[in-house]
Write a structure and sequence with these properties.
3 strands; 3-stranded antiparallel β-sheet; mainly beta
Length: 47
């Protein structure tokens, strides 16, 4: 039995010199569930 799962998301990213930040949202549409949602916030430092 094949299961179709649809996944989509969006993100935004910004950099200030070596410092960066990223916000993301992902949504998983799966049969027989209410789906799943993922929110994430990341901070990076590049040296």
């Amino acid at each position: 039995m094949a299961v179709n799962v649809i996944v989509w998301g969006a993100g935004a990213q910004a950099h200030w010199g070596p410092l960066g930040a990223r916000l993301e949202y992902e949504h998983f549409q799966m049969p027989y569930t209410d789906g799943a949602r993922l929110y994430s916030a990341d901070v990076t430092f590049t040296f």
